[in-house]
């Protein structure tokens, strides 16, 4: 059973260890068929008793207090004679072990979770028996039956503990925080839990990092708690190396960019976020501050305009030193808390889930792509340019499907009909840069170009043209690449036109070819500086290539209903 345990609870202070040993003695002396035997099976105990020095000291202290209160002299116990010492050593012998949490051995009431507390009781099953009633009485421990419960959150499947007594004197703390009234998310590999005077180490076990655990947990949660309608994020198992920033505990890295690394993070209420950790030095503090300022402005804007939550928001900024950057400080780690955290990006969509080649892209990929375009529409309608759209900067939430524009810290706001001056090398990612971006004034149309490249990658699973430097930047080496770019560009357009034509003539079930749209999105004619002829975002969203994915216009719907046709019949 122990190798299937996903977590353990180990008595940490002398009183909890003594209580554990006492429970074990009490349970092993009962009849085999007793209901409390289930509690015994959740205890992993060493085969032989061990002498615990702290318990020797603890007992000695108890003896001393007893002698003091009985009015006897205590000096004899400060300098114990050998006989007393030997007796005390014997009193220090205890059963050593821990409690195990195993999904195959579910709690007596799965919908309520594993009960931990005082017992045993005939009518109240306690899954994790922490101390007997007589022990609690003799050591003045205010433990309830049950005192706390452990269970999974039905949506995120994170694991929590919650106090379950209404009594104000019942105490439960996790890592020093009170946890009596609200579920406390156990989001660190090892955490300290105090139930009145009894202290424990809660720890995630190796099995919890395995896929088998995640599958078992999924089945267990569905059976015990029902299937929630929406599951945005499944809580990952906490990592052994703990890193916290503010109230957040960091998990695995989600991605890395030129400016920092982005990590999964969760807090004690099981909220999740992506945290970008940036090293702020005297050299880069202006650009870091600018990114944070932009994130703040974009967040203010999207809070008013982005009902569909398709654009990343900044929830808070945590400075490890202080906001004011002192030149004396060598560096400062700044944590930018971003929401939502998206478990995947379009980078994960590319491949079997998107690629149909000449058939087009899968309907799933096209739906996600269209959703991302709706995010771009929100930005463009508010006169914001994203400026760094690429596969890894579009997050994906699968259930229900939603695309989220990430990395909005380099976005810029422009005036109506206005444009931005090029600043080569400061914004965007080579491969997604529109030809005008580093050469001439540019506007929203650069995002349409980047989305065109993404469209191509979702269809064919490779980039249409790859160069290590931007051919469309001033400079001899850059300019030398332009004929090669022109060549790849023309081949790509020809291929798209061919495939689009044949996909329209005989569409493949489950796929949609958006080649006609691509050709317009990446239109350019550098010679006459005519890049503005790309469609705007509304035209992109209404392009006929979308076919049945295009929302029905009110007129078309009226016409369809007049003729009594089914949804989708023309
Ligand atoms: N909210 C989020 N949820 C999930 N993943 C994220 C989130 N935010 C960022 N990421 C991942 O982390 C990567 C790097 O983040 P970000 O783009 O903000 O950093 P950057 O330093 O600006 O990167 P780049 O140099 O690529 O522009 C993203 O491309 C994305 O894959």
TrEMBL record:
One of its GO terms (biological process) is mitotic DNA damage checkpoint signaling. GO terms for molecular function: ATP binding; protein serine/threonine kinase activity. Pfam families: Pkinase. Residues 248-546 form the Protein kinase domain. One of its GO terms (cellular component) is nucleus. The keyword Transmembrane helix does not apply. The keyword Isomerase does not apply. Residues 62-83 are annotated as: Disordered. Gene3D superfamilies: Phosphorylase Kinase, domain 1, Transferase(Phosphotransferase) domain 1. Coiled coil: none annotated. Signal peptide: none annotated. ATP binds at residue 276. Keywords: ATP-binding, Kinase, Nucleotide-binding, Transferase. It comes from the Eukaryota. This is Kinase-like protein.
């Amino acid at each position: 059973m122990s190798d299937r345990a996903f977590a353990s609870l180990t008595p940490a202070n002398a009183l909890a260890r003594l209580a554990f040993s006492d429970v074990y003695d009490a349970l092993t002396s009962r009849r085999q068929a007793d209901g409390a035997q289930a509690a015994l099976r959740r205890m992993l105990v060493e085969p032989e008793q061990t002498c615990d020095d702290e318990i020797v000291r603890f007992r000695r202290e108890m003896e001393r207090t007893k002698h003091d209160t009985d009015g006897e002299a205590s000096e004899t116990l400060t300098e114990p004679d050998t006989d007393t010492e030997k007796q005390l050593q014997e009193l220090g012998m205890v059963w050593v072990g821990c409690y195990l949490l195993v999904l195959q051995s579910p709690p007596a009431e799965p919908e309520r979770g594993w009960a931990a507390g005082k017992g045993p009781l005939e009518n109240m099953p306690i899954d994790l028996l922490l101390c007997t009633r007589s022990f609690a009485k003799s050591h003045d421990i205010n433990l309830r039956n049950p005192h706390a419960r452990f269970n999974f959150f039905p949506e995120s499947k994170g694991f929590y503990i919650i106090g379950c007594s209404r009594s104000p004197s019942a105490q439960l703390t996790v890592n020093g925080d009170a946890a009596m009234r609200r579920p406390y998310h156990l989001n660190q590999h090892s955490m300290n839990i105090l139930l009145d005077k009894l202290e424990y180490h809660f720890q995630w076990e190796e099995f919890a990092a395995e896929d088998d655990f995640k599958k078992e947990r999924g089945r267990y949660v569905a059976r015990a708690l029902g299937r929630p309608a929406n599951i945005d994020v499944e809580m990952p198992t906490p990592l052994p190396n703990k890193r916290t920033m503010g109230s957040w505990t960091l998990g695995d890295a989600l991605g890395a960019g030129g400016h920092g690394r982005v990590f999964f993070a969760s807090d004690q209420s099981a909220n999740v976020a992506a945290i970008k950790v940036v090293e702020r030095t005297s050299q880069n503090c202006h650009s870091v501050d600018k990114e944070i300022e932009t994130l703040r402005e974009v967040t203010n804007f999207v809070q008013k305009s982005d009902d569909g939550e398709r654009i990343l928001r900044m929830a808070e900024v945590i400075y490890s030193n202080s906001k004011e950057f002192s030149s004396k400080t060598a560096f400062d780690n700044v944590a930018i808390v971003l929401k939502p955290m998206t478990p995947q990006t379009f980078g994960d969509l590319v491949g079997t889930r998107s690629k149909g080649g000449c058939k087009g892209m899968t309907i799933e990929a096209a739906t996600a792509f269209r959703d991302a375009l709706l995010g771009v529409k929100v930005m463009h309608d508010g006169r914001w340019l994203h400026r760094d759209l690429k596969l890894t900067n579009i997050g994906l939430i699968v259930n229900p499907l939603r695309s989220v524009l990430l990395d909005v810290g380099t976005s810029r706001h422009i005036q109506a009909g206005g444009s931005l001056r090029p600043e080569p090398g400061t914004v965007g990612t080579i491969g997604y840069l529109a030809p005008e971006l580093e050469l001439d004034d540019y506007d929203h149309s650069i995002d349409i170009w980047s989305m065109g490249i993404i469209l191509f990658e979702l269809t064919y699973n490779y980039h249409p043209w790859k160069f290590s430097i931007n051919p469309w930047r001033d400079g001899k080496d850059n300019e030398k690449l332009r004929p090669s770019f022109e060549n790849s560009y023309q081949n790509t357009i020809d291929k798209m036109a061919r495939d689009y034509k044949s996909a329209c003539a005989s569409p493949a079930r489950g796929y949609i070819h958006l080649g006609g749209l691509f050709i317009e999105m990446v239109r350019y004619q550098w010679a006459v500086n005519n890049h503005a002829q790309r469609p705007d975002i509304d035209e992109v969203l209404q392009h006929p290539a979308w076919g049945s994915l295009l929302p029905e216009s009110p007129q078309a719907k009226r016409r369809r209903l007049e003729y009594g046709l089914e949804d989708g019949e023309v």
